[in-house]
Design the sequence.
């Protein structure tokens, strides 16, 4: 009888120890469950807030780039009107998709829109592409970037009578922004007199290409 009581007592002690371990494990599982519920709620709160935050970021992007693009529109419109002599307006269509800002430029005239790639036989594209380059170059830090721009036949679609106005505007903007511009053209050199600091004419010669300096304001006496 005593042996049976000792066996029962040992079994009871073993069960009590096992119960203690199970209770400890249960408490750990409860704590882990509570932690996971908090994390799940935080994720749900974030997912609920994300669309609102995205909408606000898009609104801020539109406001920020809207102010910048209004200035760009005004400058490009001025360039188009100066060169073409027409009452046209450059407008930008702006939208945010998947966190990225997209800009499409269009030309407006008398309420209608015009594709800048084909408008005026491509001359509008000539003007706007140069304008955007000048604006972009002007934003660079002059301490780390040389303000130098090469325009290679950028007037290829302009009518000959418009080239002089185009060159005059580029020279004026370049001087105002402190830019050095190398302008390469197949148009007659007469269009560049009075606008460029230096005018060079390249022509084929017997021994290769001959370079003639037609005007050099920097070398002229004051």
Sequence:
């Amino acid at each position: 009888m005593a042996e049976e009581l000792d066996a029962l007592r040992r079994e009871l002690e073993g069960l009590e120890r096992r119960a203690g371990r199970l209770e400890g494990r249960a408490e750990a599982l409860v704590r882990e469950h509570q932690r996971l519920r908090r994390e799940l709620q935080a994720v749900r709160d974030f997912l609920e807030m994300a669309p609102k935050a995205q909408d606000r970021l898009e609104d801020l992007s539109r406001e920020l780039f809207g102010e910048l693009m209004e200035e760009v529109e005004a400058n490009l419109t001025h360039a188009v009107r100066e060169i073409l002599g027409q009452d046209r307006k450059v407008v930008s269509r702006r939208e945010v998709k998947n966190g990225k800002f997209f800009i499409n430029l269009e030309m407006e005239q008398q309420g209608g829109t015009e594709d800048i790639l084909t408008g005026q036989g491509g001359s509008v594209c000539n003007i706007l592409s140069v304008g955007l380059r000048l604006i972009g170059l002007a934003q660079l830090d002059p301490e780390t970037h040389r303000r130098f721009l090469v325009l290679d036949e950028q007037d290829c679609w302009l009518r000959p009578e418009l080239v002089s106005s185009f060159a005059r505007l580029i020279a004026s903007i370049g001087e105002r922004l402190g830019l050095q511009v190398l302008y390469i053209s197949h148009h007659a050199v007469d269009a560049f007199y009075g606008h460029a600091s230096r005018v060079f004419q390249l022509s084929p010669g017997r021994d290769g290409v001959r370079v003639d300096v037609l005007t050099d304001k920097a070398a002229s006496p004051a």
Remarks:
- Residues 79 and 169 are 7 Å apart (CA to CA).
